[in-house]
Design goal:
Elements (H helix, E strand, L loop, with lengths): L4 H18 L7 H11 L4 H17 L1 H7 L5 H27 L2 H4 L28 H7 L5 H6 L1 H9 L37 H11 L18 H4 L7 H14 L9 E2 L2 E2 H14 L3 H16 L20 H40 L11 H8 L1 H5 L13 H13 L13 H7 L3 H4 L8 H12 L19
Antiparallel strand pairs: 1-2
Length: about 475
């Protein structure tokens, strides 16, 4: 709320330089180190820790800002961005304060549905001079709890003392609106000051007004509107010390007589008030009290002591009331059963394989049959090739050795299949195909003119025509 971005960034960079100098990495001169040390000494260790947390939060939500900080050439752009962010922070704070002022007529009443405060404060009132200690009911809330009993007895006399500063109203004394009760702070125990602190109904309503919505401030439970609340829109997952301190400052300003936002009201400084609340919650040694306080406000805002969680996990106190958990258990049981069945089946299969292997080993080796000759094996493997007749069967056993070898191998295969009969041919072609090669080149055999016509083409095609497979009878010459 009172974050000065420029101061936060400067302080954190100086702290980093100091840590680097302790590790021996610093190269600054002595006068620069002395100036840095003087600035750091102006704040205590608790303030340093708060600045570090703020710096980490800013750099986490605005990564580009961290990039600009690490580059010196981008200092002008960095300062411009810091200025815009600072203006937005101040604007948001002033806007929250102005809107809360108009709601104090109902927020400050213990039971607004039954009775409002008297004298009444209209929601549209622009004159706030009748608020603060000028209003008796609001004066009870602003009064330090230590003086509350005397103020209830004599409100005008106590107001005169406050105005004359004979009794000082400062941040050193907690105001009564921070405590519970229809009359805020009526159960205050001076011997146990922390009992009930930050549980006042006005503080709770203002917290819900700021972080959820205006309509949820007076509701007992969590808002069930269709729109997301302010906390979810800004990524707020749980309540922290800063949220409670911010709401307390806004509540104090809202019931005061100030017209516009100021950082102080008389001797009461809001910056100091904010810091005291944050430091109290941070350094509190009683962790149980801190957890109880934060859980209380988490439940007010989110309906859950642990903060914002998925909607399906809310109102689930045990696993028996959650169908998702029950289904997961059932699926896990089915998977386990299926795994066991698979293991049993694989074990039975492995045992059966072992028995078959042992049985095969116990049998005598089978007798080996002689393997057929290669041509026969080839014919048995490809029976279709043997069905087709050879285009040119061998004619005589007086051919070359290589051809004879091939013919002998074929003769072993051919008897297994009956020879295909030759198709009928005419007599003229028979004369042409039946002339033997020896007779063609035999000069002693008598030839007719018709025979010459037949033998001449044979001589020209002798190289390309294959040798006939069978010896044809000689043709008789015509006389």
């Amino acid at each position: 709320m009172f974050c000065n971005l420029k101061q936060v960034i400067q302080m954190c960079l100086l702290l980093e330089q100091e840590e680097a100098a302790k590790d021996g990495d610093g190269t600054e001169e002595e006068h620069i180190k002395a100036a840095c040390r003087k600035i750091l000494d102006g704040c205590n260790d608790l303030t340093h820790a708060r600045y570090k947390q703020t710096f980490e939060y800013i750099t986490e939500h605005t990564p580009y800002l961290g990039t600009l900080i690490s580059r010196r050439k981008k200092r002008e752009e960095l300062m411009q961005l810091i200025g815009e962010m600072q203006n937005m922070i101040n604007h948001t704070r002033s806007e929250d304060a102005s809107r809360l002022k108009s709601c104090m007529g109902s927020y400050t009443a213990p039971n607004p549905d039954k009775e409002l405060i008297c004298p009444p404060i209209t929601d549209n009132s622009k004159n706030h001079a009748q608020m603060g200690f000028n209003h008796i009911q609001l004066g009870k809330m602003l009064c330090p709890t230590k003086y509350l009993a005397n103020y209830i007895k004599d409100p005008h006399g106590m107001k005169a003392k406050f105005d004359s500063t004979s009794l000082k109203v400062t941040t050193a004394l907690w105001p009564a609106f921070l405590y519970p009760g229809n009359t805020a702070g009526e159960d205050f125990d001076l011997e146990d000051i922390i009992e009930g602190l930050f549980h006042g109904y006005l503080l709770e309503r203002v917290t819900k007004h700021i972080f959820t919505s205006l309509s949820s401030a007076l509701k007992a439970g969590v808002s069930s509107g269709t729109c997301a609340c302010n906390a979810k829109l800004h990524g707020m997952k749980e309540v922290g010390a800063e949220h409670i301190a911010y709401a307390a400052v806004q509540a104090r300003f809202a019931i005061s007589s100030l017209e516009k936002w100021k950082d102080h009201d008389g001797l009461f400084y809001y910056t100091d008030f904010y810091t005291r609340i944050v430091n109290l919650i941070w350094v509190r040694k009683d962790k149980g009290w801190v957890d109880s306080l934060l859980g209380h406000y988490n439940k007010k805002l989110f309906g859950n002591e642990n903060g914002a969680r998925p909607s399906h996990s809310l109102n689930t106190k045990c696993s028996e009331d959650d169908d998702m958990i029950a289904m997961e258990r059932q699926l896990a049981a089915c998977a386990t059963q299926a795994s066991r069945s698979s293991d049993t089946t694989s074990a039975q299969s492995s045992a059966l394989d072992n028995q078959q292997e042992l049985h095969q080993k116990s049998l005598p080796p089978p007798n080996r049959l002689p393997s057929p000759d290669p041509p026969v094996a080839q014919a048995l493997a490809n029976p279709r090739e043997d069905k087709q007749p050879s285009p040119l069967p061998p004619s005589s056993p007086q051919e070359s050795d290589d051809e004879g070898h091939v013919l002998k191998s074929k003769e072993k295969v051919l008897p297994a299949h009956p020879p295909t009969p030759d198709p009928p041919i005419n007599s003229r072609k028979c004369k042409q195909a039946s002339v033997p090669v020896a007779a063609t080149f035999d000069d002693d055999s008598p030839l007719t003119e018709e025979d010459e016509e037949i033998t001449q083409p044979t001589k020209r095609k002798q190289k390309s025509v294959s040798v006939p497979t069978k010896k044809a009878p000689k043709c008789r010459s015509r006389k």
